[in-house]
Write a structure and sequence with these properties.
The protein is an alpha/beta fold. The chain has one domain (4-168): CinA-like (Maf protein). It has helices spanning 4-25, 39-45, 63-70, 74-80, 85-99, 145-168; strands at residues 29-33, 54-59, 103-109, 123-129, 134-140. Helix 2 links the parallel strand 1 (29-33) and strand 2 (54-59).
Length: 169
């Protein structure tokens, strides 16, 4: 499929950079994934030596697992659904705290093929949580289900890398 190898290379390069910065600073990361179903964790653990900085991941695909495993507020989930920026923020904070990491990363959204919770296909909410704050970015991506998920991985790793560079500057 056209573009597949470049998307993979981009994610791999970002994962290598993220892990290098984490290791250099003595920091760790944990990941909470819904939309990406474990692809962020896979990108990080594909890099040799990742165990020095990668704590683990929770793939909370079902809405109720976001509450049970990541401490996302049940009332918020009931009111707004899982495809909501504050849900991504809560997932990132929850996984950071639960897994004892310096940083938490989360993804939630709609990969398709149909819209979900009133949100269009391609909507992705990505969050990075540190002890002092949590940043959330919303992107709307084009392509098929696989492309949307792969691009979300790249955006998540890019957001984390940007945050890490801010913290080490």
């Amino acid at each position: 499929m056209p573009g597949s190898s470049s998307a993979g290379a981009d994610a791999r390069e970002l994962a290598e950079q993220v892990l290098a910065v984490l290791r250099a600073g003595g920091h760790t990361v944990a990941v909470a994934e819904s939309l990406t179903g474990g692809l962020v964790a896979a990108a990080l653990t594909d890099i040799p030596g990742s165990s020095a900085a990668f704590r683990g991941a929770v793939v909370a695909y079902a809405t109720e697992l976001k509450a049970a495993l990541l401490d996302v507020d049940r009332a918020m989930l009931a009111r707004h659904g899982a495809v909501y920026p504050p849900v991504a923020a809560a997932m990132a904070q929850g996984v950071r705290e639960r897994l004892g990491a310096s940083y938490g990363v989360a993804t939630t959204g709609v990969a398709g093929p149909e819209p979900s919770e009133g949100q269009p296909v391609g909507t992705a909410h990505i969050a990075v949580s540190a002890a002092d704050d949590t940043v959330v970015r919303t992107v709307v991506l084009g392509g098929d289900r696989n492309q949307i998920r792969r691009l979300t991985v790249e955006h998540a790793l890019g957001l984390l890398l940007g945050r890490l560079r801010e913290d080490t500057a």
